[in-house]
């Protein structure tokens, strides 16, 4: 384990190593390999050259400042040209508001309304463009739901409960991936035992991760994995979270983890 992915590090996140694995590829490249032309606005990975190939048109490094109407206009400017047969667009709401204010907040309801208005605008624009009217198939997708959290009271302070000198980990607010440190005389099973007694946290050996997670058959996955109870946040340092009232990444059997679309 030599490389770590941090979503906040835009430069390193563009490295192809994160996207080149086996025969897996993003759909915009599959389209290109079969003779199509793809235009992709701000979708994760679209700024990266994967196997020395990119979508025919992209918007470059992600910029959350673009509003939804601008993103739609830019995408339609591209796809109205006859050479394009696939367009993809990402918008960061209501995810952004859900994290900051919580899924039951008025701010999330406002973000949902904004997104709904964006879909209406998309449909209106398509009807106004002769090259696209009655010729476009639209798929609207979402990758997760959101659960309420309280960064002040629902914290699992891992560093105060487990000695970490002989293993390494990467963490999100909801999960931990844990590796033994090279040269340390410690087994995966011994590491697992250290985490078993931590309240509001469930730890697994890689082979025992529930099948429904679809998260145990890749060599990049750590030998020990832990997930917090829904609504709890895993902290590996003091004062790690500020103004975090919504999170995803918990057990996908929980209805709150499902999109409402």
Automatic annotation (TrEMBL):
It comes from the Eukaryota. GO terms for molecular function: hydrolase activity. SUPFAM superfamilies: Alkaline phosphatase-like. This is Ectonucleotide pyrophosphatase/phosphodiesterase family member 5.
